[in-house]
Amino acid sequence: xxxxxxxxxxxxxxxxxxxxxxxxxxYLTTDFYGxxxxxxxxxxxxxxxxxxxxxxxxxxGFNFIxxxxxxxxxxxxxxxxxxxxxxxxxxxxxxxxxxxxxxxxIKTSFHKSVLTYFTFGDSLxxxxxxxxxxxxxxxxFGGCDFKKLTFKxxxxxxxxxxxxxRDNYNFQIEFNNSILDNNLFSHFDLTDCLFRSCSIxxxxxSDCIIGKNSIDNSNSAxxxxxxxxxxxxxxxxESLEPKILDKCFGINxxxxxxxxxxxxxxxxxxxxxxxxxxxxxxxxxxxxxxxxKKGILTFMWEKDAPGGKGLKKIMKExxxxxxxxxxxxxxxxxxxxxxxxxxxxxxxxxxxxxxxILYPIHIDNFLFEVEKDDIRPLESQDExxxxxxxxxxxxxxxxxxxKDRIGEIEFENKIIDLINxxxx
Length: 424
Hints:
Elements: H1 6-17, H2 20-23, E1 30-33, E2 42-45, E3 54-60, E4 62-65, E5 75-81, E6 84-86, E7 89-91, E8 94-101, E9 104-106, E10 109-111, E11 114-121, E12 124-131, E13 135-142, E14 145-152, E15 155-157, E16 160-162, E17 172-176, E18 179-181, E19 184-186, E20 189-190, E21 194-196, E22 199-201, E23 204-206, E24 209-210, E25 228-229, H3 231-236, H4 242-249, H5 256-263, E26 272-275, H6 281-293, E27 298-300, H7 301-304, H8 311-321, E28 324-329, H9 331-334, H10 337-353, E29 358-362, H11 366-369, H12 381-392, E30 397-398, H13 409-422
Parallel strand pairs: 1-3, 2-4, 3-5, 4-6, 5-8, 6-9, 7-10, 8-11, 9-12, 10-12, 11-13, 12-14, 13-15, 13-16, 14-17, 15-18, 16-19, 17-21, 18-22, 19-23, 20-24, 23-25, 26-27, 26-28, 28-29, 29-30
Helix pairs in contact: 8-10, 10-12
């Protein structure tokens, strides 16, 4: 059924509510199809669905604003495709077998409601909250974007959170004073997610990234039912505090990350020192985050340099400590005294060890265009020129066209080329 206006929607929807089939409690499948283009969605504003018992309905192409789905005892088998919910509420309702497919849920609340057998597929959840829900059972979040999703005082069981294929994307979810039982987080970046005062039991973290502050000491396992964390999650994540490993995962080994790194059969990659100009730090941060999320160990000045030591001493020690020096070549870095110092140290190490230490990528063509006579200061001209000639002899990966497209497919393809070159 094609709906063209709000009036059409109300007319046909109320006709459905008054149908004989519904009164006789037979199953009735009805499709309400609006317009597929987002900018043309039919707006259904301030419509009150409260107290209705609805089943087997398919809505497509509607923008629900300030709508209420409250005090509904029986909402079942409803599918929403390409719809928007803004400032809507599902309060004191029993929701079963819902599907939100390619939908946007913005400032929408689920309060004191029971949710069972839900699917959120490829949807946006922004400032959406689940509060005081006594049961959220077998809900699937797949390929969604989470912009501040909150679970507070809920019971969450057998629910799956599966990330999408885009790297360099952080999900923003907060679990507060809730019980998490037998849930799964798979391929999920939890760096910007928070677990606070939660009981977490038999929940699995598979191929995830857990931030240093994601799980704190206010959380605990449910009874002695510890949660599960796989090797890849431990390797990719920042080192978790021993108390958290003990309380939530039953792990009492303080150097578990180092031990797992040594015993896994994963492909071994070079550890790298990232040399870059602070004027290119946005690109450098994006590059560093992408590499770390793929399990590669990096040293980056802005994030990893310790305090209390001389600058040149830190540079020298860490250039020599890491396997490779990844040089982000640009006009800024070529002209940087600090970057040239790091290059000189890397070149010395290369000559001493007879190994490939320097690994350049470039975000502009200055490396290939600069002439020796252009170099300043003059007293450093010979040294800097040797560094530049050395870099020119190495195949440099071209990031020029993707330097402003961090996280996009083209950027990630370049990252894959870079990682392949880092294999030992």
